[in-house]
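Take a sample.
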Amino acid sequence: MQTVIAFIIVFGSLVFFHELGHFIFAKRAGILVREFAIGMGPKIFGMMKGETLYTIRLLPLGGYVRMAGEDVDQIELQPGYRVGLILNRDNVAEKIYLNQNVQNPNVLFMEVERADLEKELWIEGYDEENQFVRINVSRQAIVVENGTELMIAPIDRQFNSKTVGQRAMAIFAGPLFNFILAFFVFAFIAMMQGVPTYEPIIYDVVEDGPAADAGMQKGDYVKAIDGDPIEDWQELSGTVQEKPGEELTFLVERDGQDIELTMTPEALEESGKEYGQIGVMYQSPVEKNPLKALVFGVTQTYDYTVLILGLLGDLVTGQFTIDALSGPVGIYKATETVAQYGVYNLMNWAAVLSINLGIMNLLPLPALDGGRLLFFGVEALRGKPVDRQKEGLVHFVGIVLLMILMVVVTWNDIQRFFF
């Protein structure tokens, strides 16, 4: 149960911040956001606030922000429709009932002749006394049909009415917020636990190893190897690994005095490659500094981004197969393992997953945010949008292919972890 809760919190947080990016920049562009959903499938919770429905859905495997104009969600009042109108004090329609009897003495019933609910916002038709009337419609008017309420979306509040830049930013903001989330998580961990300084200080010495035989001790600060200055532990480790079997002279500081130690790294082999080892252990000192914590957040986000992009490159070039990919089952099992090592390790895992989610969504593939951004780029170059039906067909095919990939990856996960 703890693993389930940890998985829901981690994955739910990633989805929430991803969709929050879409939501914030859609609202900034003046787009009507009909629904902000966390999860997929049947609704288990819903709350209407302002013009947006906020929902939590059954399957914690995604989410979405539904914007006006993206789908076929516009109400068209055809000639002959019988509607009931609730008017405000200025005789402007605030609520429109479609083809249903409403027991309300304040409702004005009319048969529609013509209507415009996108640009000029009016309805023309004949009232119950067969008088021809024209009623203006509020920009926030609600249409009620079969018990379902839907706010009209004037043309200037629809997604496709916005500039290419505004639409692109509303889509790009989702992955962007995943990177921002990762940065803040890494920075928070660094503030709580401290930032590693990576100073080349020996934490412990292995008995009977080259370092112990040469007289190296716990707490020695390595300043140079063979006369070359050593700045951090990574440089020390790299120098030793690159020189197996070669005699090295270490300049170390101990109790304020400089001491020279000579040793020969033991030659070891792994995956057909030889490397050196002197038998010392390392535990990086940490420093609690808010400014350095912010820098650490940036560097960690950058490093993991480069690492994931490198792995994607390996996948494209065939250096590892699709069997190495993991889906929801694999992420769940990995979360189960990481959660055993404490909340900070779980947070670090969530930050890495957030970067991964951001990168995956930016791939220029149909149905992903990157695919939509690609179409916006084409539109910017052509000076006119791609035919919506053609674009919709491409995204539909992309969704089908992604679902097939998800099934394959999930099956691989099931075989790997349960069989």
Q: What stands out?
A: The chain has a mean pLDDT of 88. The chain is about 40% helix and 30% strand.
